[in-house]
Amino acid sequence: MYSLRRIVAIVNCSGDKTLYKWFFAGAAAVIIPLLLVYLIKNKRYKFFYFAYKTFNRDIRAAKYFLQMNVQLGKWNRKKKTLPKLFEEIVKEYPNKIAFYFEDEQWTFTQLDQFSNQIANHFKEKGYKKGDIVALMLENRPEYVGIWLGLSKLGILTALINTNLTEDSLTHCVNISEAKVLIHGGLYETVINNIKEKLKVQHIYQFNEEISKTSILNGSLNLMQEIQSASKTELPETLLGEPQDKLFYIYTSGTTGLPKAAVLTNLRFMYITCGMHIFGCFDVYDIIYTPLPLYHTAGGIMGIGQTLIYGNSMALRKKFSASNYWADCKKYNCTIAQYIGEMCRYILIAYKEETPIDHPVKIMFGNGLRPQIWKKFVETFKIEKVFEFYGATEGNSNLMNIDNKEGAVGFVPRLSMGLYPVSLIKSDEATGEPLRNTKELCIECKIGEPGLFIGRIDVNRTIRNFTGYADKNATQKKIITDVFKKGDAYFNTGDLLVQDEMGYFYFKDRTGDTFRWKGENVATTEIEAVITNYIQLKDSIVYGVVVPGTEGRAGMVTIVDPDGTLSRENLYASLKKNLPLYAIPVFLRIAKSMDLTGTFKIKKKDLQDEGFDVNRIHDKLYIIDAKNSTYSPLTNEIYENIINGKLRL
Ligand SMILES: *[C@@H]1O[C@H](CO)[C@@H](O)[C@H](O)[C@H]1NC(C)=O
Ligand SMILES: *[C@@H]1O[C@H](CO)[C@@H](O)[C@H](O)[C@H]1NC(C)=O
Ligand SMILES: *[C@@H]1O[C@H](CO)[C@@H](O)[C@H](O)[C@H]1NC(C)=O
Ligand SMILES: *[C@@H]1O[C@H](CO)[C@@H](O)[C@H](O)[C@H]1NC(C)=O
Ligand SMILES: *[C@@H]1O[C@H](CO)[C@@H](O)[C@H](O)[C@H]1NC(C)=O
Ligand SMILES: *[C@@H]1O[C@H](CO)[C@@H](O)[C@H](O)[C@H]1NC(C)=O
Ligand SMILES: *[C@@H]1O[C@H](CO)[C@@H](O)[C@H](O)[C@H]1NC(C)=O
Ligand SMILES: CC(=O)N[C@H]1CO[C@H](CO)[C@@H](O)[C@@H]1O
Predict the structure, then answer these.
(1) Residue 340 — left, alpha, or beta (φ > 0 → left; ψ -120 to 50 → alpha)?
(2) Among 191, 181, 184, which Cα is nearest to 212's?
(3) Separation CA 312–CA 96 (nearest Å)
(4) Is the CB of 334 under 6 A from ligand 5?
(5) Whose CA is nearest to atom 9 of ligand 8?
(6) Which InterPro entries match (predicted)?
């Protein structure tokens, strides 16, 4: 393995350019003649052309992939866990800053000592490996310190979405089977409302100011409790195994109740290591993370860089579009994270002509829309964007490592066997895979959108699917008998399309496509047309149920607080660009829109409210083809639709 690592080290990102070229020349000398023979025999020139075009990219990807596998194999063999790797980092950089937060600075030693106090306290109270603690706290260094401390004891932390209230919050805490809930002072009222319904033994409250002693009746004050606890390392830290469970992370479902995905130490290490290697991150990079830490993107991909690789990180309690670049400048960040619609909000907040003044070179995240990609990187002078695709619990991750506009990643066409992800045909309306006469699934051709799936191999971390706490939910995400009897694939539930170069583009989430007048309507296509017209305003398209009609009628909600939207022009632009059946029937003009924790628009609530004039206080309109516009949806029209007097 040593010599392999040497090669990898030589051909690395910042490595010697001469050796790099030399390596390519060597590889080319072997591959090109072979390819030529193959081509002349098979007349596959086109294939050759694309293989040539993507050669550079594919060699790099192969190198990173190898590097990542070598690293993970090594950690696995040496039985490393996250707390063990963190100990090594603390030894290496005791006085380096781990976190910048507001005006605080936390060194690695401070973070380590704080987490030891947590561990020692909970050990004293009799908690042990396998116990579960639920954590609901805003972004701050203590957030990481708390779960890190618990992980040293082998305790699992359920990371609770701080935006939850009432039943959904009770549900998340309940299904985690946590014995303890730790929450921040900010959520005092929310917790007070539901605490009788929780099954936990103890509730700890964390107050921002230690001097603030008022807490909920019956709760414990976390900072006071741990004050006397020892700051020294526990022997348990050394006992963990890579397969030990670390977290429950709740998938941010835009539909249904959240599900708890199980995350092991090894998986945390895999996600972090993948980002570090594919992104060519350096230990001197300072990373800016305003993303919520209870999700994978911020809480693992981001935080992992600090805990495993020793990067300094600037945290922010809550994302703010107008402070994004100012923060990056303040903390000298060279890398910044984004998610969901964040980039669009940053663009909206930007005032033309303001000088660009920040040290950020690289951004990584998920959700940069193809429509604003170019404008974003040009406006803010971003050198590299690493857009990735992946689910917390999934085994089919992709990353765009070469700035390809709009792509979520790629898999070299030659190596689809090494990284077994596929696109298969599915029923657009239900999302169910289609099957051929042999009852097997049908693979898509280039350019054909399909359901993105990844083969499950229970023997390999990268290809495994560890499932949810809920076994039934786990089964629902697995498709069996895909390409041969007995195989199993993870179903991402997303529709992607692949081009000839191997790049993947996001098309749609299954369930986002609906049927209307016997035709399939893809919401993303309509959204693209609308976005072109309304520019950076928020909008979302979905299908709503109309009594007495087949399928779903299209509906669009647009946020237009100042009322400047012209309904005639909107109609004209939809008419021009879409077939008749795809033009939304209903239009809702909202003042603002709710977001999920990952900065996506909440479609489910809008869909449930439909076009019910009695439930919705926003302005509602219905398509009016005669007048080429959207006309107000009056109570009378609404009643007529419901009674079936007015047919759509
Ligand atoms: C949570 O558990 C408690 C106690 O078993 C139960 O009363 C409550 O209804 C549960 N709530 C939810 C939302 O599951
Ligand atoms: C706190 O709870 C205890 C027991 O449940 C009760 O006796 C006491 O009155 C409560 N105090 C306040 C301030 O609500
Ligand atoms: C950022 O860099 C500048 C110049 O090198 C330095 O003066 C400043 O202290 C740095 N800021 C932080 C938060 O480290
Ligand atoms: C996983 O490993 C076990 C035992 O080594 C073997 O029986 C099984 O076939 C393997 N499964 C796969 C999918 O490779
Ligand atoms: C894969 O996941 C299954 C189910 O959670 C688990 O039993 C198995 O140990 C995992 N295998 C590896 C190699 O992580
Ligand atoms: C899971 O599915 C089985 C069989 O379909 C059913 O009996 C069981 O109640 C389900 N469990 C849960 C928690 O939904
Ligand atoms: C729409 O057209 C109808 C005739 O087709 C007309 O009576 C009505 O006034 C028009 N409404 C508007 C808002 O222009
Ligand atoms: C990400 C986030 O915090 N979203 C929402 C959480 O809830 C508050 C108020 O309930 C909203 O203001 C946030 O936008």
Answers:
(1) left
(2) 184
(3) 8
(4) no
(5) 163
(6) AMP-bd_C_sf, AMP-binding_CS, AMP-dep_synth/lig_dom, ANL_N_sf
Would you say residue 1 has pLDDT above 50? no
Which tokens hold the place of 139?
């972004």
Ligand 8 contacts CB of residue 595 (under 6 A): yes
Q: Which two tokens stand for residue 224?
A: 């006071």
Which ligand sits nearest to residue 192's alpha carbon? 2
DSSP 360: -
Distance of CA 636 from the midpoint of ligand 7 (Å): 16
Q: How many CB atoms lie within 10 A of CB 147?
A: 28
In DSSP notation, 407-468 reads --EE--GGGTTTS-EEEE-B-TTT-PBPB-TTS-B-BPPTT--EEEEEE--TTSGGG----B
Q: Is residue 645 helix, strand or coil?
A: coil
**DSSP helix/strand/coil, 387:** strand
Pick the range with the lowest mean pLDDT from 140-149, 341-350, 592-601. Answer: 592-601
In the reported structure, the alpha carbon of residue 69 is separated from the centroid of ligand 5 by a whole-number distance in angstroms of 17
Q: How many CA atoms lie within 13 A of 402 on its CB side?
A: 17
Number of domains in the chain: 2
> Is 102 part of a structural domain of the chain?
no
The CATH code of the domain that includes 556 is: 3.30.300.30
Q: Is 332 in the pocket of ligand 3 (CB under 6 A)?
A: yes
Kindly report, residue by residue over 283-319, the tens digit of the pLDDT: 999 999 999 999 989 999 999 999 999 999 999 999 9
In a domain, 21, yes or no: yes
Tell me the torsion sign for CA atoms 549, 551, 554, 557: positive
In a domain, 517, yes or no: yes
Sequence letter at residue 140: R
Q: Which atom of ligand 7 is nearest to the CA of 624?
A: 1
Residue scoring higher pLDDT (574 or 428): 574
Pocket test for ligand 8, best of 137, 160, 163 (most atoms within 8 A of CB): 163
Q: Is 163 in the pocket of ligand 8 (CB under 6 A)?
A: yes
The verdict on residue 325 lying in a domain is no
Provide the residue range defining the domain that includes 593.
Answer: 512-642
